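User
Class, as today's exercise, I want you to study this protein, comparing sequence with structure tokens, and judge whether sequence predicts the tokens.
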Amino acid sequence: MSSLRIVTYNIAHGRGLRPFSALSSQRRIRAQLAKIAKLLTRLEADVIALQEIDQDSSWSGHFDHLEYLRRFARFPYAVFGVNTRRDGLFHFNYGNAFLSRHPIMDSENIAFGKKTLGEKGFLFMEIDAGGKRVPIVNMHLHHRSRAHRIKQVGLLMDYLTKKAPQTHPGWALQPIVCGDLNNPSHTADATRSLFQFFSQRGDYRLFPMNEKTYPSPLPQRTLDFVFLPPNCTEASCRVVRSFLSDHRPVVVDCKLK
């Protein structure tokens, strides 16, 4: 069996613990991202799922944050899923992304809507992990509306239901799903709905079970999750104490049958 370490981390546009993204200099944002890259390097992950990462935005230095992190943390592969696009003097381009030690064989990004500010979505990719084709989803759900979150996980369910018959014969396992779901697992909300959906497809497990991830200085809620399918065994999880974003990163280790 081969091992896989997955990290999911909302990096808050590189703004650190400031409550709002202001117009920040490129130098300031690069310094913050350099700290995040050092943390990612220490975590020694195979795959890192990032949320709230900017491709080119006025409020965060006008440069590609993913490429900066990829080079600084020395990841050979990366893919961006931009969900928010806004042109003009104050332009915004941001969404979800993956960093990977393994080759990315395929990827597709799905935005939940067409808003030019605050749009969410999910990024699907397949990696070649030691000869095993592994599907992984990175998602970010609406932060205020339960109705929006339920609708958004419904779109993901439909996508995976249609995707599986096309690709599943080549998959080594059912999809791993992770990201910032913006709601805990113990309420009747999107996380519970998604877990029930996955559990119908095998003995999925949800991590973390008890540790809190948000807000990072004194965490009160668990918003960041990794769903592992049945073929992921010997799984363990830890939430990393870090104040480089308002979320704490979640690290999950497992073995692939």
